[in-house]
Write a sequence for this structure.
């Protein structure tokens, strides 16, 4: 039901592979797939239309880079466009020069405002602020209790006046109380509302002018569909929000709505909320969103890094050697150094699409860069002869010497030699076209 | 989009169409006595009598227009009701109509223009616009493709040349896709209804509304033991309708609450037991396993139960709604969908995608915060709303 963009691009590109330039026809095929991927990710129809035409223009006639296939090339352009649209860096919170900083939350019903209020309180307390919550949802049964319970859990005071008073009056008095009592960060929780409900939209406007917030955050569920644009426009008009909180990011929604809203309102996403725990809340990093929308991990960053660091020809020679089973410790060392140039291992693996689930649960999740350093130390303590012929290392005195030279134990060295042998065997197998049943443990532990 | 509450609750065991129809018809005088209509409930709760009037007036369009038709005549002050439509308490249909105006200007307006200019079925641009309308309503790429393909085919075969005819065809196709058994099975004693869904889609609120319409003695179970104040929220609803609420403390095992509730329902002779559960993302394996356990416990206490497992889906949800329906269906075998928050700008096209790709019927829709805003689903009206025939 849900093809990944990667698979679709591959099939779209079957005809255009191998050409030095991106042809108009090729670009068209690829952009059609990207259009579908964006629509399936819930990016607004109008936004997609404009976006795709931009990409098409940029991609047609672009020179194909050495390290990338034409498809990857287009994806790279798409990614760059997406990232620039979403805003390049995280938009951190600014605090009022004269406290308290007042933040008002607004949004549709059920998108997570009250939970966000609690999470934000905890978040700013970690930044050294003293948060204070104001409960203005006088409509939903037990909404005030919900905030009170959250406040109790976090030991954050909650200002309430029950459900009879008007929200704008509660908000105003709440902020005043916080100021008097010396709290420096006030979070005003409001009722969920539908944007067509004019009474309610007028009300949020009144709450806004009663509290004069420094920040107004629109809380938006990441599953929101095509109407996110209408919703955002209405909240922009009545609540004039200056940033968004994207909630329920721990689900599997692609979150195209975020892109639509940012592109239409030109307001950034400031926070990402993902999880049932109060601590699962952080600044939003736009670059991480592009890959999610396209459904392809962080493949782009990987493409970029590969392009910058890997000499394609050298890589090809290496892989030939690898498959033939003539792979030595020398080659291994060279590869490790190449990988290290690209960044931390764990993050590299996370960037490979499809790799995430299958391999992270397997042996590769243990990779850590310090271990890589230790392996490097062991290899550099070997003689040239030993590096070329791993069999020599079965001699315990050689292993002892290497252990001494690299600051590790004899067992470590023996383990490395054993794992390396397994790896060689596996590579030979793969070279013959067979896929090993079980990935051997990588020698980095 | 909505049909009357009459005949919504199926009280006989066999779902054979004709028999059911006859049985309910015969029972009608009784059943209207214990099943209040939306209008009655609205009248009971709404502070403004005018709201009721408008609502009733809107409902006149329905063929099976209710025994209270004399009440409709009272709503003769057309000017007042027209003004009401603009405001908050303007009846759901009126609200929906005003609400859709803005998006209609862009999307449905385009369709109208396209239909006016429609000449022949080869018109690529025309089909692209139809596609745009469907996708902009969250119908999704796949279902849109299917629908547009079918339409194109049939329009060609039947040699359709008029735009209006074509619109009729569109509505027909969408309706066919959406049609399914709508009634809630309440023929058991006690009937157990399990409410499931993602966080914030309106499970507790829907229970609070639905309990007003249920025939017989209702009982509620506060199975959301996780979210702060969820238990209190359900208790508040229970107080309003005088229905007992079975609850444990926050953090208790939700399956244990379900167990207690089924036992209590059996012991106290409740007719319908509505069990609330905590909102959960369908991707959380452990939480889905917990839900499966709740279902298992209910089944063990009362073979055949739960008789209805209803998933609430927020109408503003995009394509992720498909995944939600798929995963929940796999884990707890859904019997129906409740589409909530249709009073916003969203058209809830995801319902079409779910009906087409997952095959779970839509049973109820909710178009506002009032109790009377909950309605049985009507495929025809929903399809008409989708294509701007308001």
């Amino acid at each position: 039901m849900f093809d990944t963009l990667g698979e679709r691009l591959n099939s779209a590109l079957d005809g255009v592979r191998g050409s030095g330039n991106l042809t108009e026809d090729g670009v068209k095929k690829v952009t059609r797939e990207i259009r579908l991927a964006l629509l399936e990710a819930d990016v607004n129809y109008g936004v997609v239309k404009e976006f795709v035409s931009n990409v098409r223009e940029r991609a047609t006639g672009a020179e194909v880079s050495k390290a990338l296939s034409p498809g990857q090339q287009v994806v790279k352009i798409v990614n760059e466009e997406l990232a620039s649209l979403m805003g390049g860096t995280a938009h951190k919170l600014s605090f009022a020069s004269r406290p308290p900083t007042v933040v008002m939350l607004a949004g549709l019903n059920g998108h997570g405002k009250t939970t966000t209020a609690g999470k934000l309180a905890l978040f700013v307390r970690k930044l050294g602020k003293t948060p204070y919550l104001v409960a203005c949802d006088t409509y939903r049964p037990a909404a005030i209790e919900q905030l009170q319970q959250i406040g109790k859990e976090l030991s954050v005071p909650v200002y309430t006046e029950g459900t009879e008073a008007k929200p704008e009056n509660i908000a105003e008095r709440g902020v005043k109380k916080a100021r008097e009592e010396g709290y420096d960060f006030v979070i005003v929780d409001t009722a969920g509302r539908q944007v067509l409900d004019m009474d309610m939209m007028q009300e949020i406007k009144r709450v806004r002018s009663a509290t004069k917030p420094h920040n107004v955050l629109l809380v938006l569920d990441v599953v929101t569909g095509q109407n996110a644009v209408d919703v955002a426009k209405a909240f922009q008009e009545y609540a004039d929000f200056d940033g968004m909180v994207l909630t329920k990011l721990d689900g599997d929604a692609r979150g195209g709505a975020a892109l639509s809203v940012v592109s239409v309102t030109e307001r950034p996403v400031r926070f990402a909320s993902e999880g049932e725990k109060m601590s699962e809340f952080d600044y939003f990093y736009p670059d991480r969103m592009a890959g999610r929308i396209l459904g392809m991990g962080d493949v782009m960053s990987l493409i970029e890094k590969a392009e910058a660091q890997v000499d394609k020809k050298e890589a090809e020679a290496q892989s030939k050697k690898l498959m033939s089973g003539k792979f030595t410790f020398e080659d291994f060392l060279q590869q490790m150094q190449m990988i290290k140039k690209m960044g931390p291992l764990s993050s590299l693996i996370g960037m490979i699409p499809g790799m995430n689930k299958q391999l992270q649960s397997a042996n590769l999740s243990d990779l850590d860069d310090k271990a890589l350093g230790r392996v490097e130390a062991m290899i550099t303590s070997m003689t040239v002869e030993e590096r070329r012929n791993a069999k020599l290392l079965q001699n315990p005195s050689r292993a002892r010497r290497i252990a001494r030279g690299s600051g590790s134990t004899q067992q470590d060295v023996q383990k490395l030699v054993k794992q390396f042998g397994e790896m060689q065997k596996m590579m030979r197998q793969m070279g013959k076209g067979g896929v090993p049943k079980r990935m051997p443990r990588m020698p980095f532990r | 989009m909505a049909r009357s509450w009459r005949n919504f609750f199926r009280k006989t065991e066999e779902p054979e169409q004709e028999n059911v129809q006859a049985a309910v018809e015969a029972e009608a005088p009784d059943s209207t006595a214990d099943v209040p209509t939306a209008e009655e409930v609205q009248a009971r709760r709404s502070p403004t009598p005018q709201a009721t009037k408008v609502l009733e007036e809107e409902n006149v369009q329905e063929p099976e227009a209710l025994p209270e038709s004399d009440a409709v005549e009272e709503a003769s002050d057309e000017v007042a009701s027209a003004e009401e439509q603009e405001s908050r308490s303007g009846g759901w249909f009126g609200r929906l109509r005003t609400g859709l105006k803005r998006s209609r200007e862009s999307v449905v307006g385009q369709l109208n223009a396209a239909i006016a200019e429609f000449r022949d079925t080869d018109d690529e641009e025309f089909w692209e616009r139809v596609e745009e309308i469907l996708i902009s309503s969250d119908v999704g790429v796949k279902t849109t493709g299917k629908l547009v393909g079918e339409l194109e085919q049939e329009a060609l075969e039947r040699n359709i040349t008029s735009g209006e005819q074509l619109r009729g065809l569109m509505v027909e196709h969408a309706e066919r896709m959406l049609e399914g058994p709508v009634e809630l099975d309440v023929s058991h004693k006690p009937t157990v209804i399990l409410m499931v869904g993602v966080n914030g889609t309106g499970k507790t609120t829907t229970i609070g509304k639905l309990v007003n319409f249920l025939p017989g003695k209702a009982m509620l179970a506060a199975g959301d033991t996780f979210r702060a104040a969820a238990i209190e929220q359900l208790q508040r609803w229970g107080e309003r309708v005088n229905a007992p609420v079975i609850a444990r403390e926050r953090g208790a095992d939700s399956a244990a609450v379900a167990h207690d509730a089924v036992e209590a329902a059996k012991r106290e002779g409740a007719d319908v037991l509505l069990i609330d559960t905590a909102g959960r993302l369908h991707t959380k394996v452990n939480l889905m396993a917990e839900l499966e356990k709740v279902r298992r416990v209910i089944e063990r206490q009362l073979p055949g139960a739960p008789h209805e497992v209803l998933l609430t889906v927020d109408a503003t949800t995009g394509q992720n709604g498909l995944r939600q329906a798929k995963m929940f269906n796999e884990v707890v075998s859904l019997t129906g969908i409740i589409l909530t928050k249709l009073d916003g700008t969203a058209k809830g096209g995801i319902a079409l995608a779910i009906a087409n790709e997952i095959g779970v019927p839509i049973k109820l829709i909710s178009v506002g915060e009032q109790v009377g805003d909950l309605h049985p689903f009507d495929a025809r009206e929903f399809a008409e709303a989708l294509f701007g025939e308001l």
